Amino acid sequence: MHPAADLDRDDPAALRWIAEQVAVEAAGHLRGLPPPRQAGAGDSVRTKSSPTDVVTAADTAVEALLRARLGELCPGETVFGEEGGGDPAAAHWVLDPIDGTVNYLYGLPWYAVSVAAVRGGVTVAGAVVEPVSGRVWSAAAGAGATCDGRPLGVGAVTELGQSLIGTGFSYRAERRARQASLMAGMLPRVRDIRRAGSSALDICSVAAGRLDGYLEHGLQWWDWAAAGLIAREAGALVRVPGPTGSAAPDDGLGADATLVAAPGIADALAELAREYGAAEV
To answer: Has this prediction a pTM greater than 0.85?
Structure first.
């Protein structure tokens, strides 16, 4: 264990340790909170961008804990989080206190705490922790990715028709319909499609070879900041929007598309998405 005072905050390995420590602590805190109420009941649940985009009291409590611990371990560093905001252009840390809040709200186990260390707008270390299972996914730039200390590696699939693909959907009804149309077109051309409800865990699943690819439009920086590095360090090809939502290259996938895939099917998956209208989603 690193003494906090001796940590080099420019060393990705040290930043990985910090991300792991605070994410594990936050996940433990989340496990100890009372179970969330049923959807729409009481003042423990509110909504943001739409009636289906929920925030629980636990989201804000967990982010407050993460910010407090990072303030102790990394005083003076700027934090940007889903619930508490901040200055993304100056961010040293990017937080998602509960990725998969709807799953958490309904008692489904697929949600995670995500912590990314950022330098110059680029993730250099990160951790994604599953409160229910206790799994710890993490990576440091140039040092590989692990789950509970075991090295991760993407799948070896080379046939798109044999690939299992993950996705997710917008909270806005009109965009959800376009996403559903895209997936309906793609579905006959792949093995199958999964929608688990946590983008961070889906991206980590590509890193572990549990999924062969993942495609979703409209993700925010906090959704993929840590998981994207984990997947990249595990050998995945990772295409994300700019760190603060700036337009991606004109590659026909749509400016806010996130695509993470095993190298053997990445190009074919991107071409399939273009064929069925990804740029219009």
So the answer is: yes
101 as an active site residue: the answer is yes
Catalytic residue among 223, 230, 256, 265: 223
- The verdict on whether 60 is a catalytic residue reads no
- Structural domains in the chain plus CATH codes: 4-151 (3.30.540.10), 160-280 (3.40.190.80)
User: What HEC string does the chain produce?
Assistant: CCCHHHCCCCCHHHHHHHHHHHHHHHHHHHHHCCCCCCCCCHHHEEECCCCCCEEEHHHHHHHHHHHHHHHHHCCCCCEEECCCECCHHHCCEEEEEEECHHHHHCCCCCCEEEEEEEECCEEEEEEEECCCCCCEEEEECCCCEEECCEECCCCCCCCHHHCEEEECCCCCHHHHHHHHHHHHHHHHHCCEEECCCCHHHHHHHHHCCCCCEEEEECCCHHHHHHHHHHHHHCCCEEECCCCCCCCCCCCCCCCCEEEEECHHHHHHHHHHHHHCCHHHC
- pLDDT (0 to 100) of residue 56: 82
82 is annotated as contributing to ligand binding: yes
Give the pLDDT score at 39.
44
Say which of 83, 96, 130, 212 is annotated catalytic.
Answer: 96
Asked about 82 being catalytic, the answer comes back as: yes
